[in-house]
Write a structure and sequence with these properties.
Blueprint (H helix, E strand, L loop, with lengths): L10 H20 L1 H25 L1 H4 L2 H22 L13 H20 L10 H21 L7 E2 L3 E2 L1 H23 L6 H20 L9 H42 L9 H14 L6 E8 L1 H8 L1 H17 L6 E6 L2 E6 L3 H20 L8 E8 L6 H17 L7
Antiparallel strand pairs: 1-2, 3-5, 3-6, 4-5
Helix pairs in contact: 1-2, 2-4, 2-9, 4-5, 4-6, 5-6, 5-7, 7-8, 8-9, 11-12
């Protein structure tokens, strides 16, 4: 059931699930062994895919609990695979009864339940992938050897008598562990995307329903056995869907978002860049020429002296501090940009009085900034402003602000020894 869009609960997906259930029921009535082989085979494949996706995308997602779930489901899938190949009627192992596949089922469900309940612990915690993989490898090997070859695992199904007390009690214990898992995810839901949280919640609920169904059958080919496997299929599909969304789509969404951000922001200062400046001006110019539009051009005077005397690393710090100073003294509705080098600009929707106040705040902050740092003694700032007038183009506006800024710079007399 390869459902990879974000809306698992869409009518289209619900229709798919309904069709799969109906077809599965028809197949089970004709050949239950075939139904079981297909369904458990698909569960094993899902487990392997979950591991591959969680493992291979970790360097992008950095999601520890998904990596933990991926490792866990790999080994749950291994137990499910042995459950599949030992199932009554396949005749791969001559000396086995219906007891061993039922034991492998219980072992797999214990491992799955404990893993789901433990996963929230790793939401904000790193762990050694090698160590966790080794622990699961040893535990899984121990269970398989004890069930198939040593036959020392407690009986779960006795031909003629049906399910043993150990098996039935185990299903209830597993359900309790899963309920604990629901609680663990609930108290950590603020750290999980809501859509992912819902998928996990429903996946665990369907796993619980599957466990409860398996307390009610007396025949490994019976109706309740069928229902339990269907619930398992839905649960695995929900987990698979979660891993696909979180493991593939979200990391690449984040990469695209970061690329988009880097295309519009200056990497050094975090301000918008020249491209964003031009785009914003064009947007305002095309939509709302009536509202007041002002741009400020700001240029650091003698910035080259800072670079030459103290080095480019110090120069970068000065640019970052100046950018922060600008942002601190403008309004949230204003837009500060770095055009390049030591040239900055601010887009304002402001009256003449408001513009003058903003410029004064910037100048006063620069004065205080310089007084607190002796390395800035030679530094100054030239500010030119321009207001959009009738008949002005964007180029005219930028040119006027530039000219006013350079005029102020030329009228200054810096005399440093």
């Amino acid at each position: 059931m390869n459902i990879v869009n974000d809306n698992f609960y869409s009518n289209k997906n619900l229709l798919k699930i309904s069709v799969i259930i109906v077809v599965s029921f028809i197949v089970s009535t004709k050949n239950y062994l075939l139904f079981h082989t297909i369904l458990e085979g698909w569960a094993v494949i899902i487990s392997a895919i979950i591991y591959i996706i969680a493992n291979r995308t970790y360097k992008h997602s950095k999601n520890n609990y998904l990596l933990f779930l991926g490792i866990a489901y790999l080994f749950v899938g291994i137990l499910d695979f042995f459950h599949l190949i030992t199932y009554k009627g396949l005749a791969i192992f001559d000396n086995l009864t219906a007891n061993q596949p039922t034991q492998l089922w219980i072992a797999g469900r214990y491992l799955e339940a404990i893993s789901l309940a433990s996963a929230p612990y790793f939401i904000n915690r790193k762990f050694s992938k090698q160590t966790v993989t080794l622990i699961y490898s040893l535990l899984t090997s121990f269970l398989i050897i004890n069930i198939i070859w040593l036959k020392s695992f407690p009986d779960c199904f006795i031909q003629g008598d049906g399910l043993t007390s150990f098996k039935i009690i185990s299903e209830y214990i597993i359900s309790i562990i899963l309920i604990a898992g629901i609680y663990n995810f609930y108290i950590n839901k603020q750290n999980i995307r809501y859509s992912i949280y819902k998928l996990l919640l429903f996946s665990i609920i369907f796993t619980i329903l599957s466990e409860l169904s398996f307390t009610l059958y007396n025949d490994v080919y019976g109706v309740m056995n069928f229902i339990g496997h269907i619930f398992k299929l839905i649960s695995y599909s929900l987990i698979f869907h979660e891993i696909v969304i979180k493991g593939i789509e979200l990391p690449y969404d984040r990469i695209c978002s970061e690329l988009k951000k880097s295309a519009h922001t200056d990497s050094l200062t975090g301000l918008y860049n020249r491209k964003s400046f031009i785009e914003k001006l064009k947007d305002i110019y095309s939509r709302d020429k009536a509202s007041p539009l002002v741009i400020l051009m700001l240029d650091l005077d003698n910035f080259k002296m800072i670079n030459d005397k103290y080095g480019h690393q110090t120069g970068d710090v000065v640019l970052q501090e100046f950018a922060q100073l600008i942002e601190t003294n403008i309004r949230k509705s204003d837009m500060a940009c770095r055009l390049g080098g030591d040239e900055f600009t601010v887009i304002l929707r402001a009256s003449e009085e408001e513009t003058a106040q903003i410029i004064k705040r910037i100048r006063d902050s620069i004065k205080a900034w310089k007084e607190g740092d002796s390395t800035l003694k030679s530094l100054g700032v030239s500010i030119g402003s321009a207001r959009l007038k009738d008949g002005y183009s964007i180029d005219d506006l930028i040119k006027e602000a530039d000219n006013n800024m350079y005029e102020e710079k030329e009228n200054k007399d810096y005399n440093y020894r």
